[in-house]
Amino acid sequence: MTRIIGGSAGGRRLRTPPGEGTRPTSDRVREALFSAVQAWAGTWEGLRVLDLYAGSGALGLEAWSRGAEAVTLVEHERRAIAVIELNARDLGAPVDLRARAVDAVLATPPAAQERYDLVLMDPPYPLGEEELAEVLASLAAGWLAPDALVVVERGSRSPEPRWPALVEAWRSRRYGETTLWYGRAAASPPPEEV
């Protein structure tokens, strides 16, 4: 059973997609993740959150429950999209669901005022390190607000993600078979190309 841990929807249950295509983040790992984000941000108010490889939407919906200003979920698997829609409807969560592949969404960066303060990534464990590095590079090329936090969930046997030049490794925490890798964006985003 997956549930919202804290905030206005704390304790509410979430559906999860059927089959083995997604693997929900455990309550223990989510609680540790959101405690770390709370310590980093101090408040959820005003935060813009991007949840890549959203699965059931649990990470983005948890951010919404805790008070994030805007939450965008990106997922391409049809069954997972249907579950996200149901979960968001049941919670009354006004999230922006982008039903496309992550690389397709990241191909067009948002306007500067719509960049994200927090990016949560729980890619499928089979996602290759090279592909993960490309996604992180795309994020750094116009998706991150100054001082943004990027959190990558990976299997504990996976190496540290290859952070792009504008994102520096901050810390990592291991929880059994899961490791959370945290990176922080540079204080100033790259200049806009003309």
UniProtKB/TrEMBL annotation:
Q: Where is this region: Disordered?
A: 1-26
Q: Which Pfam families match?
A: Cons_hypoth95
Q: Which UniProt keywords apply?
A: Methyltransferase, Transferase
Return the SUPFAM superfamilies for the record.
S-adenosyl-L-methionine-dependent methyltransferases
Q: Does the keyword Transferase apply?
A: yes
NCBIfam families, per this entry? 16S rRNA (guanine(966)-N(2))-methyltransferase RsmD
Gene3D superfamilies cross-referenced by the UniProt entry: Vaccinia Virus protein VP39
- Tell me the CDD domains matching this sequence: AdoMet_MTases
Biological source species: Nocardioides nanhaiensis
Its protein name is 16S rRNA (Guanine(966)-N(2))-methyltransferase RsmD
